[in-house]
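Sanity check

After download, print the first record. It should look like this:
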Amino acid sequence: MLPLGPDLPHTHPRPVHWLATAAALAAVVAGAAVLQPSDAKATTDTSTASAPGSGAPVVKAPDPTAADYPVDCGPAKLDVTDRASGDLDGDGRPETVAVVRCHSETGTPPSGMYVLAQPDGKNSEGGNDSGKAGKSGGSGPARPRIVATFLDPKEGMSIKDFALRGTKVSATLLGYSSEQVARCCPDLQREVNWQWKDGKFVLKALPVPGSV
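Expected structure tokens:
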């Protein structure tokens, strides 16, 4: 199992490994893969795409502010802090990767990262309204579907350097070596990426700087 990060430059060095977090992330990605379309394959990056077949209409990428995320923010609102769209699985329809977290004026709440697909044609009512980033429940247009979870806020990590290049989603995960570390100042980091391969999203952790 790979460790998930060295100490950040502003902290004192110490040999802390995120073994449990690495296992949890791998389990999350593996579990989310079963929610993907069975005919999915990797292809190009675009915010709109034509549906399979000649002369098919353009399909718009899902709107991340309209999705209903499984995040409980209590009275606070849920912010979409970053987003990117592309055809991640090669089915001719673009997905959107959204980074979200509960709104806070102080500290850094943990982030979640989700892959969104267009609705399946059914209205989506109810859901977790406390964590809504955009539209409320009801009989309006169906919301985008969450088809994969790259990072659950329950893991207690935040994200920087989020990017989508081609079909590869990359980010730097930031975390904490102990409960005593202030939530404003994560002291661990690890660069990771996700890419669709052989019918599922595969998580790859990049080597720790200075490791062999």
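If your output differs, re-run the checksum step. Summary of this record's structure: The first helix runs from residue 19 to 32.
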